[in-house]
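Methods, example record. To illustrate the input and output format used throughout this study, we show the complete record for Tyrosine-protein kinase. The sequence lines were provided to the predictor; the line carrying structure tokens was produced by it.
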Amino acid sequence: MPILLPSPSLSPFPAKNLPQPRNLRHRLPLLLPRSRRRCFLRRAGSGDVDAFTQKSGYLFELSVSEADSLSEYDISKIAAIFKRRPFVVVRRLLQIATTFGKWFALRYVDSLMERSDQMFEVRASELRKILVELGPAYIKIAQAISSRADLIPPSYLDELSLLQDRISPFSTEVAINRIEEELGLQIDEIFSEISPEPVAAASLGQVYQARLRRKGQVVAVKVQRPGVQAAISLDIFILRFLAGLIKRARKLNTDLQAVVDEWASSLFREMDYRQEAQNGVKFRQLYGSLPDVVVPEMYVGQTTRQVLIMEWVEGQKLSEVKDLYLIEVGVYCSFNQLLEYGFYHADPHPGNLLRTYDGKLAYIDFGMMGVFKQELRDGFIEACLHLVNRDFDALAKDFVTLGLLPPTANREAVTKALTDVFQNAVAKGVRNISFGDLLGNLGITMYEFKFRIPSYFSLVIRSLAVLEGIAISSNPDYKVLGSTYPWIARKVLTDSSPKLKSSLQSLLYKEGVFRIDRLESLLTESLRARTDKALVQKQDEGANSRVVIKQVLSFMLTEKGSFVRDILLQELAKGLDALGLALSSEATARLPFGDSLLSSKMTEEDKTNLRTLHRLLALLSRLQETGNSSRGDRRVGPHKNQETNLEDVSLVLNQLASVEEVLPILSVIPELPPESQQELLNLPADLSGRLISRVAARTIRRMTL
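The corresponding predicted structure is encoded as:
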């Protein structure tokens, strides 16, 4: 039961039970005057001092002016503070060195005594306790890897996962005092009910469940842990110094100090709960309307730098339930964050993602967010396209655009290295590409060619890696890139960005030849981009052809599909023109001296266009054969070319005459929106115009030659 607080006038408050979090126990009702309530709170929050305060409490002793100067990340101010406190810095270094040194020494002794397996769980538990004692900076690093079930042994994974929201809490009395100081009101003036113990305790703060007195809403109240700003500031000061030493010693091209600065800046923003509330408002505006995504409301007016009040969301950790549909929802939401709007959740560990009891995905923490600029988003999309299509020369250029490679890098050598690294990974198909494997395989190449890791990139990679780790806990074969690529394919096909249109044009044409296999791949992958629960659950059983046809037509006949529609009409016109030439060539071949006239009629381009028409019709009618892709690459003599032309003509005519394949298309037309139906009616006239223009141009050209 929650604490029932008396009204400010101390009159009894009618007991209304809070909807209880399902993991809480031993709740005691309290309906007492303020003096007795204070005694109860001291008892409820009493007990052992939390490990962080006990072991690292000496870090908290900053003056008011020093603490105020650390409201934003400024390394010069941090350096100025701790240069005046050299003994604190030395003490912290000794604490870190001795704590980790003792743990590694015990691991070494275990290996010597051949008891590593028996002591595995014990050492994992000890490591978790060490991280808690050292404080938030080390806990944050551990949280980043705690979701990687494919990289971390199970015993360590179990212990590190406790760092997400089950760290030993600090005193409830201290928390109540901080709430009152920050909001400038007595606790019973703000809330009518509040839980006597925190619902969850994490590295930076702990959360209570309460009910607002005036509005009656059930809310989560997050209170910042004492001393975190001073501890994080000193640890960043030390890490930044060590990063500089490592960069100089290893002669790395990556600015490690800039990477630390980017991470530190995000941590400082996370410690300002006013910024988190604004992040939550923006996140809710951008993504709160996505299917089956829940973003809680922020009470910005009642939030301060160290106290945050937000809507209460009930649910289970996403990593504790095997809900593959919500994993797909998370991938889609992450795609929107990274590649649509560029405002993304940079800390999606399992403690921040819940499955609500009505089956939706809830985001509940908005302290660490990142911004992905438009030019970098386009560069990332292009890199994914070139990777999947094995265009490693273009991928090397993408790495320069993304800031991973200096412009002076040997492009030819980089291309060869990337081919060696990624060839096997992409050979398994886009759906089987592991994000973790790509990063692992790239490690040696990054060192050899002095790759740089831009500061923005570390948060993006962390976000994707953590998401894949959560998915792997539900499905060991899950590949986040394979699930994200359908959305990338759809964006490339529909985006109005001139840069992405140019990329699509370059992808589909090589030396003027239309590469239909790549269009087919993009269309096929884009059809896998689904957020409808029924479709996601049945996607392995194969999609209904009627649904597929409707999706393709709906895409092709809208403004977003106009660019691809224009390409298809252009290729159809070229193919029909080639078909006419082929038919006239066949007739000419039967005439006396027909062989001498045949070569002047059909060019290599015409023959390619005819084969493209065949494959286009096969694609549109879903009768594409496996062997067709090789036909366009044949190199044969004149007589065999004629036979091939006749074979292609026969196949095309058979497809055009196949009424059964047209019926499914006709049957979905009434279901299309009126504007799409009108666009469909305009297609024959558009195609005829293109065909007439092409025939006229060819006729004039041959008459003037």
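Annotations derived from this record:
Residues 7-47, 534-543, 623-643 have pLDDT under 50 and may be disordered.
The radius of gyration is 32 Å.
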